[in-house]
């Protein structure tokens, strides 16, 4: 095995060990600070027993990922943006977790979207300027770019249509993935497991990419290790919840990793569970507002199956299976589209 392979394994194992060692005292700290989760009364009745379980576990994940990325000297142009999103959106999520634990009400959804959008725009502009993306890469088709220039009326300035198109796609992807993972984070272990499969997929893509992106792959390995360490305490019955500090930040980070690898178009396949969870929520809200009827027993989708009689562990494991298969499909689409 070459040195790069050893570094990836070391990063993953060290991240796992750090989280496993630090989480017990961190959980005690959360208990001491009163960071117990407030469970929504309108949710499934079986979830009321989770009242008071410490939340804000994502803060430790973010800290470990950032620290180890620095220790392993994985900082370069391919990793700055994912780590910045992890930190900035993680700060938003931590504030929301804190308010939820103390008051029962977090930051309003619209306010969170504003902050996510501001961060996403800044990161999208940086990625576009640094990597020169003027379109997207579509499986089996190749790069779809728009090189024409739109001239601003009554000025001598203009901008490339492709650059603007990429920025718009990037912002939608970052905000969408961030909230999609957050919606998925409703059952013990559900978001963590599906995120692990997604980051493993992009680790492989970063290594197989042309040119390869070893530092980005290393950061993905660190993320996977940290998530696996978190799952040690988050599987049913959970001792700690990820909270918005982890779900929002890791979802946004996943989208930025997809952007930098040039494989944003296969993110809906790799993150199929997040897409289904988001779609179910949108359909439920839209149907109720337009027709005053519900399509699902309860949204997001995992609650629909819970109320249909599936045990929480069964929902989680079956969603993990779908997530793993979807991740394999995404990697297969990538490999099949590599120019011969």
Percent strand? under 5%
Shape, please? globular
User: How far apart lie the N and C ends?
Assistant: 26 Å
Helical amount: 55-70%
Structural class: mainly alpha
Order of helices and strands: HHHHEEEEHHHHHHHH
The biggest beta sheet, please?
Answer: 2 strands, antiparallel
Number of strands: 4
The strands making up the biggest β-sheet line up spatially as 1-2
Domain count: 1
Question: In terms of quaternary structure, what is this?
Answer: single chain
Q: pLDDT under 50 segments (min length 5)?
A: 151-156
Number of continuous helical runs: 12
What is the averaged pLDDT score? 89
Radius of gyration over alpha carbons?
20 Å
Describe this structure in words.
By secondary structure, the chain is mainly α. The chain has one domain (3-267). 69% of the residues lie in helices and 4% in strands. It is built from 12 helices and 4 strands; from the N terminus they run H-H-H-H-E-E-E-E-H-H-H-H-H-H-H-H. The chain has helices at 3-33, 58-71, 77-103, 109-131, 161-184, 190-208, 214-234, 243-261, 267-270, 272-291, 301-307, 312-336, and strands spanning 135-138, 142-145, 149-151, 158-160. It has a two-stranded antiparallel ribbon with strand order 1-2. A two-stranded antiparallel sheet has the order 3-4. Strand 1 and strand 2 form a beta hairpin. Helix 5 (161-184) packs across helix 10 (272-291). It is globular and about 55 Å long. The two termini are 26 Å apart. Residues 151-156 have low confidence and may be disordered.
């Amino acid at each position: 095995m070459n040195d790069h392979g050893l570094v990836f394994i070391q990063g993953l194992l060290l991240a796992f060990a750090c989280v496993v060692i630090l989480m017990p005292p961190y959980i005690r700290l959360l208990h001491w600070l009163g960071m117990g989760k407030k469970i929504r009364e309108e949710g499934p009745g079986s979830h009321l027993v989770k009242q008071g379980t410490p939340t804000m576990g994502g803060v430790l994940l973010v800290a470990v990922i950032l620290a180890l990325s620095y220790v392993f000297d994985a900082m370069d142009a391919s990793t700055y943006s994912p780590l910045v999103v992890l930190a900035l959106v993680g700060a938003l999520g931590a504030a929301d977790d804190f308010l939820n634990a103390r008051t029962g009400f977090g930051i309003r959804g619209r306010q969170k979207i504003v902050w996510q959008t501001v961060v996403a725009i800044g990161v999208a502009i940086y990625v576009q300027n640094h990597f020169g993306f003027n379109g997207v890469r579509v499986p089996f088709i190749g790069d779809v770019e728009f090189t024409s220039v739109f001239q601003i009326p009554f000025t001598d300035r203009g901008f490339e249509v492709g650059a603007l198109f990429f920025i718009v796609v990037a912002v939608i992807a970052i905000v969408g993935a961030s909230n999609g993972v957050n919606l998925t984070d409703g059952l013990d272990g559900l978001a963590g497991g599906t995120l692990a499969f997604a980051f493993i997929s992009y680790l492989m893509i970063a290594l197989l990419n042309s040119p390869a992106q070893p530092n980005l792959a290393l950061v993905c390995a660190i993320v996977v290790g940290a998530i696996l360490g978190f799952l040690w305490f988050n599987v049913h019955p959970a001792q700690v919840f990820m909270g918005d500090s982890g779900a929002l930040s890791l979802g946004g980070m996943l989208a930025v990793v997809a952007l930098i690898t040039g494989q944003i178009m296969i993110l809906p396949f790799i993150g199929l569970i997040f897409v289904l969870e988001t779609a179910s929520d949108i359909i439920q809200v839209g149907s109720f507002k337009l027709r005053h009827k519900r399509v699902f027993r309860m949204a997001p989708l995992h609650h629909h199956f819970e109320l249909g009689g599936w045990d929480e562990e069964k929902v989680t494991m079956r969603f993990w299976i779908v997530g793993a298969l979807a991740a394999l499909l995404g990697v297969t689409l990538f490999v099949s589209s590599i120019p011969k």
